[in-house]
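Hi P.,

Sorry for the delay on this. The queue was packed all week, but I finally got your sequence through. Input first:
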Amino acid sequence: MTHDQELQFSKSLTALLPFIKGYARKLLGARHHYHSLYEDFAQTAMLKAWENRHSFVPGTNLKAWLFTILRNTIMSHHRRHWREVVTDGASDENMPDETANPEGAVAAKQSLERIERLTQMYKDVLTDVGWEGLSYRQSAKRHDVPVGTIKSRVARAREMLSQLAGGGELHDGSKKHPSFLGASP
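Then the structure:
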């Protein structure tokens, strides 16, 4: 390719950039998590087109050739990266890999089973405080009870879960309270 041909190719390529960005946006779709990367894919396709300008046949459809490069670039990216799991700690080498921990899954299942054994009132306060992150005051307002009642219920629920985790029977202090259970063990 001569210098004049390269200059003409460069101008033609640059003129197609808005079309390439639009096509990349369309290929990625609004729902896809790569949607914000459409400009990166468009720039990559433009770079590949420039690097392979010697294989373009003058007189053929440059736009179609460029669209093909873009489509192949996006498809190759999806083929390589569909298995990636993005987490906040993905770059932290010191963070343990919990994805390959069957013991953790078993422990979580057992914890959920223990929670299911509690009566609804204890499940509710644990959900409020432990899961939803509500303060004791917010939970008390939600259930229309004093704050001290919520604190007491949370403390008792934690104690009961601790007893269940230890394989013991449920009791509060020195008395046994089977009424704490929502279902039989």
